[in-house]
Structure formats: structure tokens, C-alpha cells
Amino acid sequence: MSEIREVVIIGSGPAGYTAALYTARAQMRPLLFGSSIFVGGSLTTTTEVENFPGFPGGVDGPVLMENMRAQAEKFGAEMTDDDIVEVDLTGDIKLLTDSAGTVHRAKTVIIATGSGYRKLGLPKEDDLSGRGVSWCATCDGFFFRDRDIVVVGGDTAMEEATFLTRFAKSVTVVHRRSTLRASKVMQERAFADDKISFAFDSEIAEIKETNGMLGGVVLRDVFTGATRDLDVTGLFIAIGHDPRTELFKGQLDLDGEGYISVASPTTRTSLPGVFAAGDVVDHTYRQAITAAGTGAAAALDAERYLAARN
Ligand code: FAD
């Protein structure tokens, strides 16, 4: 039988690593499972991060994540580049099974499994991430000053497009239907904006590359199949997110979109001793700093839960 841990953390993004740092410094000897294929979380798929405080010159996403990991390890956090494939969180002692079938036992669990941006599924989409293709206007809008941009999606795309007009020369919103469901106020604002134009009944058919950067897109009319080139150097994909909560279905309360429900402003989930932080909870802010912030909160919540139990 494995020892009973004070805390096991699932996820190696800013939320998981920050929870590891805090619980390690609180002498809780955390064990973190950080995934077998995606160690370091979403920021490892980007280059320059300019909005994480403490780095006036910006910081490379993978470097930021390696630093977070090293800082937690310095205080004794144990890291395992493996997946948790099954959980039983209902008992007093939580059971977590890794990919080798080993069952780990813990008094508390911090879930920080993040969420994935939905993709168009087109060739070159991943290769050009951070090279003209983005999923986050808040993160990357600043890099697109005075450029022609296309935004694909529905209501969120409208919000992203309006935000991007602060930087861009022009923004084209590509939408599969002939109307938008976005609020009337939002639509009127977008329609009145000289920088925004719309390509309704359209989808992105192809992503083009020029010298390793986005070199434009091809639009396709969903009814006629007719295609046309759009000369842009920025593509923002705003077609939704999928929280990584498959493991927890049936055990934890999830909201209508599948995110873990917590007793805000705490990180307590519907089960005692189980806490959740970062993008697996948050569909509003989705930033590295907010994920790190709630990771710290989850560590403090877990620490207090154990203190009250002992
Ligand atoms: P994540 O970073 O998604 O990490 C979750 C981790 O948990 C992943 O590694 C995942 O594989 C792992 N995991 C999931 N399930 C399991 C399991 N069962 N077992 C083990 N491990 C598991 N934010 C900014 O603030 N500034 C930016 O400039 C910025 N740029 C971005 C650029 C890109 C391309 C992307 C995709 C995101 C960007 N973001 C940016 C958003 C930011 O990356 C996220 O908000 C943040 O990483 C969320 O942190 P998290 O810890 O909640 O989850």
C-alpha cells in the first residue's frame, strides 16, 4: 500500500505548479502529476508572455513554466510526468490511479487540469501557434498592432474582435451563420465600428504559411463552396474551450459547460478535501496569473482543511 499523502496535485500549468510551491513551503510534501505528454501546461505552446508580472522584458512561455517547476521543487515538491487515469474522490482518503496502475492515496487533492482551446483542425494551425495564429486576444492582441486580422467564431469572436480593434488595422469576423446571437448592444457596437467587417455564412478553409509565419487564410462560403483569399497576418480562433474534467464526472459537481463548480471565492469543490484551481474552473479570465492565483488559494484551502481535521 502506498503512503497516505497530505496532498496530491493533478496538472502542471501555473495553477498546479503554484499549488505545489505553496503546499511544499507549508511542509505538506506535495506529489504532482503533470501529464505524460503535455508537461508545463498551455503556456508551453506559446513563445513570448508579456503580461505575467515580474518580467518587464517578457518571458518565454516554456521558460516561465520551467522556472515555476524549479521553484516548487526547491522546496521539496515531488513531480511526476505521468497522468492520473482514474480517481475515487468520494472517501475520506482519496484514491488516484496513475497510468501504470499504481494507486496513490491522499487526504486532499488539488485539481488543476486546465482546459483546451477548441481547434479548427486545419493543417498548419498548431505549427503557426504564436506565429500569427492565436486563441487569446487578451494574451496576444498587443502583438498585432496595425495588422489585418481575422477572427473566427460566434459570440466570443465578437467580443475578441471589438477588443482587437484597439490594436489592429482591420478585423474580419468569420461566422458560419448569417446572423449572430451576441447581445444587441455588442452587435451594434461591432457593426458601427469602421475597423470591423463580417464574412457571414463562411468558414476558414485553409491556413497559409509564409516564411514560417501566417501568410493569410482562404475563406469558403458554406452554401456555395466558393473560396476567396483573405490577406491577413493574424488569425484568432474563438470557437470555445473544453475543460479537462472527464475524470471527475459523476463525482464532482460541474457547471453547465463542464467546468468544476467551486464555492467561490474559495476553491472548495462539492466534495470535502477536493479543491480545484485555474482554467478547469474559470471560464471568465483564463490567464496564467489568475490560474497561479487560484493555485495559491487552493493550497491555502487544503492546508486549512487539514489543520481543521487534525
Ligand atoms: P494548464 O496550463 O492548461 O495546465 C493544465 C495541465 O494539466 C496540462 O499540462 C494538462 O496536460 C495537465 N493534465 C490534465 N489532465 C491531467 C491528468 N489527468 N493527469 C495529469 N496531468 C493532467 N495566459 C496569459 O496570462 N498570458 C499569455 O500570454 C498567454 N498566452 C497563451 C498562449 C496560448 C497559445 C495558450 C494556449 C494560452 C495562453 N494563455 C496565456 C492562457 C494560459 O496559458 C492559461 O490561462 C493557463 O495556462 C491556465 O493554467 P492552468 O494551470 O489552469 O492549466
TrEMBL record:
It comes from the Bacteria. It is an enzyme of class 1 (oxidoreductase). Its cofactor is FAD. Its EC number is 1.8.1.9. Residues 6-295 form the FAD/NAD(P)-binding domain. Belongs to the class-II pyridine nucleotide-disulfide oxidoreductase family. Homodimer. This is Thioredoxin reductase. It comes from Streptomyces thermocarboxydovorans.
